[in-house]
Amino acid sequence: MIFLYNVIMRKILRTLFFSSISLFASNYLLNNIKFGSNTDAILIVIGLSLLYFFIFPILKLLSLPYKGIAGLILSSVLVFIVIQVLSTLIPGFVITESDTRNLRIFDFMLPSRHLTQFWAVVYSAVTISIVNGFLSWMCKSK
């Protein structure tokens, strides 16, 4: 019983940690996520963690794609929906328009582009999905 409790707590803490890192990595790259307070940031991380902790095991059971490109697209769509819902429920959580000015990835300068609020949410959702997927892949239990 204690072993099962430890395994579940470890998975919950790992999911919370990965969600917070992916959220702040997306904010670092795009600088479009504004939090009213630390409580708002914690609520957003908990919302994303609930998505990753409960939805993806259900997708496994339903045999829907959760790995590869199809999994990335499905994950991005789900994160997009969760971000939209959380931005309406939490008044201090705002996603603003953004620019991709001086964005370097692997020492390649990406072209500067102005993002409307919709595209900023889309880019944030894709970034969150990629970072969370990468961290989950790196710490996969065998």
Written overview of the protein:
- It is globular, with a radius of gyration of 16 Å.
- It contains 4 helices and 6 strands; from the N terminus they run H-E-H-H-E-E-E-E-E-H.
- The mean pLDDT is about 85.
- Helix content is about 70%, strand content about 10%.
- Helix 2 packs antiparallel against helix 3.
- It has one domain.
Q: Element order, helices and strands?
A: HEHHEEEEEH
Helical content class: 55-70%
User: What's the gyration radius in Å?
Assistant: 16 Å
Distance between the termini: 21 Å
Strand % is 5-15%
- Average predicted confidence as pLDDT: 86
Poorly predicted spans: none
The structure class reads mainly alpha
Q: Which strand order do you get reading across the main beta sheet?
A: 1-2
